[in-house]
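Changelog excerpt

This revision adds worked examples to the README so contributors can see how folded entries look when concatenated. The first example is reproduced verbatim below.
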Amino acid sequence: MKITLLDGPIGTRLIDQGHPCPAPAWSAQALIDNPSAIEEIHREYAKAGATVHTTNTFRTRQGSVGDAWGELTQRAVSLTKSACPAPHKTAGSIAPIADCYRPDLSPDDPGVEHKRMAEALAMCGVDILLCETFPHVGEALAAVQAAVETGVETWVSFTAGPRGDLLQPHQVRRGAQQAIDLGAQAVLVNCIPASDTLRFVQALQGLGVPFGAYANAGHPDEGIGWAQDPRGPHRYADFARTWVDQGATLIGTCCGTGPEHIRVLSERLNSED
């Protein structure tokens, strides 16, 4: 079974390196202040073994960065493409309009805003549109529909949040099936603690498309990430192995992890293939 290795987070990596990521722009601030730092992070993940690289467009919406949103979106894609070798793929990130841990803030009609972002990313030439970190199924489906309409390959990833309680596995499965019906070509879960991700991965089995996970490091006490323990990347890989055992073929990492986690995943999963 061939494993496609995704990359890891940009936002928490920037913070680890001392780059300010203030709200509401968050990681997009570095596109203004220090774009070379973003490019170098992409290079680190490519060197570690990732072959799908997500653009730093999680917060390049007008509501977060103002009228420069289009320029910053284009800059983010360009940085990803320049840092990552062929035949690696670029995934344009489409995130929730509001807070990815506050489904109650999801707007009633998110389709127009997601359409703007999907079309902008498609115009920039991304290989994949990744609708990611959605705790609200309805908004995720609006993003998927907008992405699919561009003609670009579309993936969707749901999150149950840092406590694993924003969505239940059966809700993730139902949302994933609806997304597939709309044209999504892969389904994932992300930004759930690695120690709690298996039950959500299991909910994605048998839907007829590739599926996977890119989890966060969980609480610092778990020793998986947040630069707390050098054994953390191996602990993460242990969890990832259980997802692969369930049939997952799309594997990456999320908040609190870094290139070393991707390197260990590459070594472990490739050697066990």
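The second example, added in the same revision:
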Amino acid sequence: MKIVYMGTPAFACPSLKALHESRHDIALVVTGQNKRFGRGKKEKATEIAELAERLNLPVKKPLSLKDNDLYDSIEQLQPDLIVVVAFRILPKKLINLPKFGSINIHGSLLPKYRGAAPINWALVNGEKETGLSAFYLKQKIDTGDIISQIKISIEDKDNFDSLYNRLSETAAPFLLETIDQIESGTTNIIVQDESLVSFAPKITPFDALIDFGFPSVNVWNFVRGMSSRPGAYTFFRNKKLKILSCEPVDDYHETGVRPGTIIDIKKKLIVQCADSAVELKRLIPDGKKEMDGVSFINGFRPEKGEVMGELTKESDFSK
């Protein structure tokens, strides 16, 4: 099949590589524009652009997907299929352009977790299972008919990074199998059940703020879902403190103690939650390198009874 591939982040790279190595023809890769990063504001291409260039594939980086130039370029190619993996919402005229339409690979078992951050929210909500969905695109996000799905167990050791990588690698053979079904006409289409819909909106900085007022297992799931991107955080002595990992500790609990209070600093950094407590294991203090809980105790000398999450009135939340 002649395919136009659309994607931006690292998540979409294994699928592009697998497609390139298959019998299919990638006529064009469409990705986001270069962005400037760091103090020097050096320009950097998307991960998909970098991979496509290494594979000697033609690349377009449109400012807008509604550009007539992009539409005309794709129309001239006469693709059989547009494949979207971790990209933007396509305009209707692009969706309907290819012979077999346009498909998307989404990181959840639709109709659960429609939206930009399905992996984060599945972990935050303590799901034991997630997966990938291949579906035909419609103009309304993540609502199209499902072509196929694959389930993946979520392990206790998983965080956002590990689950993101596992789903990304699984997406590659899953995509090829899906394309084979479309080409051979053996798809078994499933219409999404709107009564089962849940949402996974984009993560904002405020969304990653830890609330120790929840039970310890909820705090643990929250940190897993935000680690390492964007990174769950709290505040300690008026400075931002990113928490990369923690674990529930059921044998710690002090009645009447405010959630967020440090209740043990002997050999572990233990913080009170609503029911029991969590041990903070990997942290990044503001302006410092990543460290474990013991190193934080030795370096910052926290006192039992200090409260995490507190800010003075003079503090600027945005910093």
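Reviewer comment on example two: The helical segments are 13-21, 47-54, 68-77, 92-95, 118-124, 160-184, 216-226, 293-300. The longest helix spans residues 160-184.
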